[in-house]
Amino acid sequence: MVKIVLIVGALLITGCSSVVKTNDLLMINTKKTPVNITAISNGDWFEPAIHKVEDIAITHDDGITTRGLHLSVKDSKYVVIYFGGNSFRIQDAGIGLTRRFAQLGVDFVWMDYRGLGASDGIPSIDTLKKDAISTHNFVQQYDKKIILHGVSMGSLLAANIAASDNDIHALVLEAAISDVESLVKGMAPSWKTVEVDPELKGISNEEFIAKYEGPLLFIVGEDDSVTPSDNTRKLFNTSPSSQKSFIVVLNASHVNSMTFDQAFNEYSSFLKSLN
User: Fold this and answer.
1) CA proximity to 172, closest of 114, 122, 100, 65
2) CA atoms within 13 Å, Cβ hemisphere of 201
3) Which of 19, 62, 192, 274 could form a disulfide with 188 if both were Cys (CB 3.0 to 4.6 A apart)?
4) pLDDT along the chain (275 residues), means of 10
5) Letter string b/e over residues 18-41, b meaning 16 or more CB atoms within 10 A of that residue's CB
6) Which pLDDT score, from 0 to 100, does residue 19 have?
7) E strands, the chain, where?
8) What are the residues whose beta carbons fall under 8 Å from the beta carbon of 197, sequence distance 6 or more?
9) Does residue 161 contact residue 205 with C-beta atoms inside 8 Å?
10) d(Cα 158, Cα 244) in Å, to the nearest integer?
11) What is the pLDDT of residues 246-269, one digit of tens each?
């Protein structure tokens, strides 16, 4: 969600009113960056007897191809589908995140969003949601219990799938957005009138989370000023799940919680609690 922060900064120096549109929020490549799985398999933590990593590509109904990676871990029961933040590219953070999930003992799938990283196309809210569903359908071939992990903007994509799919085994929301309109308006100064275009107004995690009753883990950084812990607590209270947890990661800011041992340890405990 780096771009949201930049947009809000711009709102401070423009006139008394502004309109934020979908294209203002979504990141697009200036240059394609291929997925580099060799750097992952060359890691000192990678054990060929336990770990396997491969490039994967999904061609969607409109002909656009998105690309990513699949890490498999021997004897893993779960596969985590990771939906990153708006500006996340595998080329930037794939090595560290893949290692983190390998240490958790789960398979890991991460696709660059369309128009970003190694993937083709131009993103829109509608196509990102459809691509996320296609990714979920693709991952079912691995015949493992599926956990969706959504970060910032990715929390909307993960929760949207979980709200309508009973086969999801668990949901993890990190730095979750409540809704885009309140996020943008809440970060603008009180004297500024901000309008959000209709496509963005209709995106609400509260609606999705209210429909999901399975295991749910919320993770938020203590110093997260973009999606603060109070917002996450509101989403937590919205959830009807009987198995839900809420973690505030000390000293973490926006979208970096998984680099902290506290988040890793709590995530590991959450996995152990699953049936």
Assistant:
1) 100
2) 6
3) 192
4) 42 47 70 92 97 98 97 98 92 94 98 96 91 97 97 94 92 91 57 61 86 97 92 95 97 95 98 93
5) bebebebbbbebeeebebbbeebe
6) 58
7) 17-20, 51-59, 65-73, 78-83, 107-111, 145-151, 168-174, 193-196, 216-221, 244-249
8) 19, 20, 21, 22
9) no
10) 16
11) 999 999 999 999 999 999 999 999
For residue range 213-225, what is the model confidence (pLDDT) as tens digits?
999 999 999 999 8
d(CA 246, CA 240): 14
- pTM, 2 dp: 0.89
Give the separation between CA 95 and CA 43, rounded to whole angstroms.
8
pLDDT at 165: 84
Structure tokens at 118: 């190694």
Over the range 116-145, which residues count as b (16 or more CB within 10 Å of their CB) and which as e? bbbbbbebebebbebbbebbbebbeeeebb
- Non-local (6+) Cβ contacts of 32 within 8 A are 117, 118
Task: Give the torsion through C-alpha atoms of 253, 247, 234, 106, to 10 deg.
Answer: 100
5-23 pLDDT tens trace: 434 444 433 444 455 555 6
**Dihedral (CA of 23, 228, 154, 206) sign:** negative
Count the neighbouring beta carbons within 10 Å of the beta carbon of residue 148.
29
Segment (H or E) for 273: helix 261-273
Question: Within 13 Å and on the Cβ side, how many CA atoms surround 266?
Answer: 21
- Tell me, what amino acid is at 132? A
